[in-house]
Amino acid sequence: METYQAKNINKEDxxxxxxVIYNKFEEEKSKIVDTNYHFYYNTPIITxxxxxxxxxxxxxxxKNHRESWYLKCEIQNDExxxxxxxxxxxxxxYFESKTLRELIxxxxxxxxxxxxxxNKIMRYDDYLEEETVRKLFHTNIECCxxxxxxxxxFKTKCGHYLCVDCKIQIxxxxxxxxxxxxxxxxxxxxxxxx
Length: 194
What we know:
This protein has about 190 residues and is α+β, with helices and mostly antiparallel strands. The chain has helices at about 10-30, 100-110, 125-135, 165-170, and strands at about 5, 35-40, 45-50, 50-60, 70-75, 90, 95, 110-115, 120-125, 155, 160.
């Protein structure tokens, strides 16, 4: 599994990153008239397992309260980023911080992985936890086509299990790839249902 992590970041580098982002935040904050303000700072585009994504360092600011900092991510869709969609918060509890410095330190010290099954970027530690849970629920059950561990499995009417990728490959076909029974009714004769 390919992982992404910010490398060679020392205390001085973190100080510089925090200074640059916070100066931009203060500059934009000084222009607002509303009591609530949402600030985004985008990292450069990163490629992980052939998927392009970027992080948003996000701050919710309210004039009556202190600011709150979060890390969100945006996955590239159809050759461009869809900024109209709300980006995903990555592990909301872990990446919710009272200060920008705390958020940057958490970001720098975390490894990230692209989870193809759920189409999301997540902390590597969280991914390992989810994989452990998946394996507990799918012990000794493999896809009948590729023999890979199941995740988000699909069971045919004739009782065979398929992983998500193999289910997509047989979409539109009428016969089970294992026993050639009809996928619509589980019978030996092909039916006319779509």
